[in-house]
Specification:
The protein contains 14 helices and no strands. By secondary structure, the chain is mostly helical. The protein has one domain (30-66, 144-393).
Amino acid sequence: MVRNHPGFGLEPTETTPHETTGHSLAITDIGAYTHLSQADIEAIGAELDTIRRDIEESLGEKDAAYIRRTIKFQRSLELAGRLILGCSRSRGGWLLGTASLAFAKCVENMEIGHNVSHGQWDWMNDPEIHSSSWEWDMVAVSSQWRYSHNYRHHVYSNVVGVDDDLGFGIMRITRDIPWQPVHLLQPLRNILLAAIFEWGIALHGVHAERDRAAGDTEQLTRERKTLVRKIARQAVKDYVLFPALSGRRWRRNLAANFIANLVRNLWTYVVIFCGHFPDGAEKFTADVLDEETRAEWYLRQMLGAANFNAGPLLAFSSGNLCYQIEHHLFPDLPSNRLAEVAVRVRAICEKYDLPYTSGSLARQYLLTLRTIYKLALPDRFLTATSDDAPETASERKFA
């Protein structure tokens, strides 16, 4: 099993992934699925290594200035929003302040918190803008997220029974997951998860720590206490301190903070789901991990992620995760460079006749919703077969 790939932002541990059971419908042989020889796969890996090396060697002050400018913009926008909420008495002022605060929280979560925690800016050696020290503005604990996301998700991306992010443990988004009556509720679960996404991420992180602790109850207790302290700090800040500073207008401020957090949760949910669950974001069995090479890992990332089309503003607002394919290939490369990386990755896909899954944000989200609603039903109600359904593909479809 592969244990060493670039850009995870976390050293792998000896955690043993969960084993899949039963008859699998996902990709078991990447070479057979892509119709590529081993020589072709290794050539793709070499070309992707070249892209990584080119970007790393060109990082410099322009990139450092970008993240510092982004942090300054986000903090200024949040401060402006809170001042408007604290001083304005009009409905228009409340709407402007709430919108400013919501956008500031989205930028902090996506373009700053997510990307800094991936180690994208560790090369700067700035103690403030470093994956080991950054704590983001939501209830999830950054250190717990780095393990559940940077390692469990990015190393074992889209491997059924191994990647905990594949449906987040509460939804069936591939037929490899056996249907259960509880899946009938997943349309409602989907809505709930979207609204409380930061809480889902927090619980997901501490759940991963339970597996990491491997029976060490003291360690698990410490991690749970860390999460409780983080939740308390966030609740006091957003729902006690800032409303209290507004005096008699505390209800308006309380509502604004609640709505800003809700907007941030909904936006983060949409971006993440559109990058992982639309048609074309393929799933894999644990068989692909056996003796997986660096080049094969690259290929799995290209096949398992999806992009959505975005201009500069939408890209910035999404933390540049509109380039989810490129992000999965190079998780620790700075987000502001992914647009230029995407041009070269798309060229490689065209050269080797590989799919490059992309579409409008609306299209990718509607495809995701269709899969969530469709797979809430038992398989006997689904018309497409298990081998040609758009949300599930394997090399068997070529038989």
